[in-house]
Amino acid sequence: MDVAAKLTSKGQVTIPKPVRDALELAEGDAVVFRIEGKTATMARTPNLLDLAGSIDVPASRRSERWGEVRRASRKTRSAKRR
């Protein structure tokens, strides 16, 4: 679906109703823009609480502090990039 909208002098765009309906957007919902070259894609930002329980965490790892989990994840990602 292609839907057009105009940019105001303040840099604002009203999200057309067909787009709001397709993305199930309501007042107060957050959106994210992804820029790739000269193309922007807009998406509804998922509610992180909706993801709760969607990943099975082994019992042995459930008591780990969040900071430690993030550090280990960053270390793993940086090792994969090399």
Describe the protein:
The chain has 82 residues and is an alpha+beta fold. The protein has a domain at 57-81. It contains 2 helices and 2 strands, in the order H-E-E-H. A hairpin with a 2-residue loop joins strand 1 (31-36) and strand 2. It is elongated, with a radius of gyration of 19 Å. The model has no long low-confidence stretch (mean pLDDT 88).
Please summarize what this structure is.
With 82 residues, the chain is α+β, with helices and mostly antiparallel strands.
- Broad shape: elongated
> What portion of residues is helical?
25-40%
Radius of gyration: 19 Å
Average pLDDT confidence is 88
Strand order of the largest sheet: 1-2
Structural class: alpha+beta
Number of helical regions: 2
Provide the low-confidence segments as ranges.
none
Strand tally is: 2
Main beta-sheet strand count, sense and barrel state:
2 strands, antiparallel
Order of SSEs, N→C? HEEH
Distance from N terminus to C terminus (CA atoms, Å) equals: 40 Å
Per DSSP, what share of the residues sits in E-state strands of 2 or more residues? Answer: 5-15%
